[in-house]
Specification:
Length: about 350
């Protein structure tokens, strides 16, 4: 048969071998270069907002032989908008549920021997919790059958995220939490549009008009989830300007300069957020006691660390937050000092303490 674009129609039960092989080659290349591949299983823009993306979408009935059951011809709002998300995310439809299950398994099968692929449900996803539950249940079933443990990232609205994480079985399948569609605004108020409201992230923002976030509020959001779910990595993708805030909250894959000091970052990966003495405003710390500390100060001329329980001295390095360049401060912090005072030389300031080699 002939599809809407004049080419042949799709059979959604048969996959494009060339496409999947090329994607696998890309994942392998990333693996060799020490990179991760973030694989969005779906892309919501096909089913919500711009009608042009639905017109030649393979799941549209005019474009396949699989009787997917969407309205045909499409009902475009104002001749330019499409709202097919309700039907697309409805996994009670037997044909569409089977197609979803097969496709999700294909995503997992294709990267089954890669250790560096992170699976997320959907780019720009603001869908309902029921679809996320279906997606995770399919993944759990695949894991049980194959014995594999893929990296699964929970990237959705906050209400859906929290409901999934409150479910022990489904939460156990999640390796990473992605803060992308919600954030604490600079005044501390939460911006968190709900899932399943048939609105894309841009549409939610146009209606709710949120303020931007801030360094302190990014630290707050990341640290809250890192503390509550210590077995999971936390990403922050709602705003990419605050890479160091992601780090200081205990987050992963921050947006930082490309030429980082490898030794420092290998140590940061083992650190956890800690409170500074007196908890001064605008100052944040990470620690791996006995080995290293990292302190970021938005303000203040000095920072105080509690090293009372340490058995070694620490060499102090200054780090340029903009470039990552290290410079020796010429200072050391002494073991056993419950109020080790470190002088700062600018705002913002970043200081790395590493244990003196014994």
């Amino acid at each position: 048969g002939t599809a809407w674009d004049g080419l042949s129609r799709y059979d959604l039960t048969h996959y494009n071998a060339w496409y999947w092989q090329r994607l696998k080659e890309f994942a392998d290349l990333c693996d060799r270069k020490g990179l991760v591949l973030i694989h969005h299983n779906y892309f919501q823009h096909n089913i919500l907002e711009a009608a042009a993306h639905w017109a030649d979408f393979p799941w549209r009935p005019a474009n396949n032989i699989n009787e997917t059951g969407f309205p045909e011809p499409p009902r475009y709002a104002g001749d330019k908008r499409v709202f097919m998300d309700r039907q697309f995310y409805d996994t009670t439809h037997p044909v569409r549920a089977a197609l979803h299950r097969s496709y999700i398994r294909k995503c997992l099968d294709n990267f089954s021997d890669n250790s560096n692929v992170i699976h997320t449900i959907n780019a720009e996803f603001t869908g309902p919790v029921e679809f996320v539950q279906f997606w995770l249940d399919t993944i759990i079933e695949w894991k049980q059958q194959t014995g594999q443990s893929p990296l699964i990232c929970l990237s959705c609205t906050k209400d859906v995220q929290d409901e999934i994480l409150s479910d022990p079985k489904r939460a156990a399948a999640v390796s990473l939490i992605d803060i992308r569609y919600w954030w604490y605004q600079s005044d501390g108020r939460l911006y968190a549009p709900q899932g399943g409201k048939h609105l894309a992230p841009r549409q939610h923002a146009r209606l709710l008009k949120p303020r931007s976030t801030s360094f302190a509020q990014v630290v707050r959001a990341v640290r809250e989830y890192r503390t509550k779910y210590p077995d999971k990595a936390v990403l922050f993708n709602a705003d990419h300007k605050f890479g160091w805030a992601v780090v200081m909250g205990g987050g992963s894959i921050p947006n930082l300069w490309p030429s980082a000091d490898k030794d420092m970052f290998s140590q940061i990966a083992l650190m956890r957020p800690v409170d500074l003495p007196s908890e001064p405003a605008g100052q944040y710390a990470l620690a791996n006691p006995g080995r290293s500390y990292l302190v970021y100060a938005e303000e203040g001329d000095s920072v105080t660390l509690d090293l009372a329980n340490e058995q070694t001295d620490f060499i102090i390095y200054r780090v340029d937050p903009a470039t990552g360049k290290l410079s020796s401060s010429g200072q050391q912090a002494a073991r056993g000092d419950s109020a080790a005072c470190i002088q700062l030389n600018g705002k913002p300031s970043l200081v790395w303490l590493t244990a003196v080699t014994q």
